[in-house]
Specification:
By secondary structure, the protein is α/β, with parallel strands linked by helices. It is 21% helix and 26% strand. Strands 1, 10, 11, 12, 13, 14 and 17 form a seven-stranded antiparallel β-sheet that branches. The longest helix has 11 residues. It is globular and about 65 Å long.
């Protein structure tokens, strides 16, 4: 018997310096009114706002979580009444909302979720502690296993908004819909919102005063490379020009600049995108042979879902390094055997913040802030109707019992 596990994609995130903000207005035709319906009375009773910082920074060059933590504590307009910064999973957020009623016996108002992520597949936030990263598939698995029971209207309702702050995750509407379903949108009408642009937080002052932190949105451009063969700067510039022929950007300037001195400058950030697929077998003899190039090609030909996973990244297949490993899992008297396929691709990301239209010379460094309801910049979830059977899967067995791996991966 074979079971499948998909372990998801990781994307880098960057941060900058910032300045005072000015909000842009947009035509009403572009707006989605997620707060009130025209026929409803104005809700004048105050609602509790809360922010969940769902991770810790691992580099002093990328303080995404630290800066966001300060921002939602101190910013005069965007600060929330409650900040929670000791959770790393959707289930912990869900449990907190369920077990900690908001003030005034009213459902929660704004719920910020701050997480690294990517627009292709997933969030770095886990579904539940020690579980898989949050993707459409892993959330669906959790729903089917009744890990999440819909929250009722005493916790969230159709005036509650979950604002997911990540790396352009608004370009993955299926993920937003699945998150909304997890939090009970079908019953309580809660909506999930996310930006289609990169988001980051940055200091206004050079002395890094936390009260000066501001919120930026950024436009990005991508070039790709094989991890074993990094192109030179001119080759990167040619790739950007080929991929974005209509953008008037000084590609070489961004390629040569690794760090910004101010947020008016374009610069680059390089990282590796890993994607992992694993098939689990109850008998080692069932593992297909992949010790030759021909047999590996046969494996690819018979595993279209793996290729579909890579295609979702938008990265050309020739930029992936793909390695095969055998893995042994052991729990008491039970043994399971894994065929793990690791794919890695290099990404150079050119990033430039969007500044206010009034800052045409890019000297005041005023951040551009789109209208809250503008669907050109934000994606909003839609209510999904789904079945919720309890289904047990082998991959959940690994995550939930903490299957101990008694052997090292062996590359084939």
């Amino acid at each position: 018997m074979k079971k499948e596990i998909i372990v998801v994609l990781i994307c880098g995130v960057v941060f900058f310096f910032s300045c005072t903000e000015k909000r842009k207005t947009t035509p009403l035709s572009h707006r989605v009114n997620y707060v009130l319906k025209p026929e409803e009375p104005v809700d004048t009773v105050p609602r509790t706002s809360i922010t969940f910082i769902l991770g810790k920074d691992h580099s002093r060059y990328n303080q995404y979580y630290t800066l966001a933590n300060h921002y939602y504590r101190l910013h005069p307009e965007d600060k929330t009444e409650i900040i929670i910064d000791n959770m790393t999973s959707v289930k912990e957020v869900y449990d907190y909302l369920r077990t900690h009623p908001s003030k005034n016996n009213r459902p929660y108002g704004l719920i910020n979720l701050v997480s690294h992520g990517n627009e292709f597949l997933d969030l770095s936030t886990l579904v539940y502690p020690y579980g898989p990263r949050t993707s459409v598939k892993t959330l669906q698995n959790a729903i089917e296993d009744s890990i999440f029971i819909p929250l009722d209207t005493t916790v969230l309702d159709d005036k509650s908004l979950i604002f997911l702050h990540g790396c352009a995750v608004g370009n993955n509407p299926e993920l937003l819909n699945k998150l909304a379903f997890v939090f009970g949108a079908e019953q309580n009408g809660v909506q999930v919102k996310a930006s289609k642009l990169f988001e980051y937080y940055a200091y206004l002052s050079k002395n890094q005063n936390p009260q000066s932190i501001r919120h930026y949105y950024a436009k990005t451009w991508y070039a790709f490379y094989h991890p074993d063969s990094i192109p030179n700067n001119l080759m990167f510039a040619e790739q950007f020009e080929e991929r974005y022929p209509n953008d008037n950007i000084n590609w070489l300037e961004g390629i040569l600049r690794r760090f910004q001195s101010n947020p008016g400058e374009i610069y680059h950030y390089s990282f590796i995108v890993p994607a992992v697929w694993e098939d689990i077998y109850e008998d080692e003899a069932l593992i297909p042979s992949v010790n030759t190039q021909k047999k590996r090609q046969e494996w690819f030909n018979n595993n279209q879902p793996f290729l579909d996973m890579l295609n979702k990244t938008g990265i050309p297949s020739n930029h992936f390094q793909i390695l095969f490993y055998r893995h042994l899992y052991k729990r008491k008297s039970q043994e399971f055997h894994g065929l793990r396929i690791k794919a890695r691709a290099g990404v150079m990301c050119l990033t430039q913040p969007l500044l206010a239209e009034s800052d045409s010379l890019r000297t005041q460094l005023i951040p551009f802030l789109p209208d809250d309801h503008d669907t050109d910049y934000f994606q909003f979830s839609e209510i999904q109707r789904e079945q919720n059977p309890h289904i047990f899967r082998l991959e959940d067995f690994f995550f939930k019992i903490g299957m101990q791996d008694f052997s090292l991966s062996k590359m084939i």
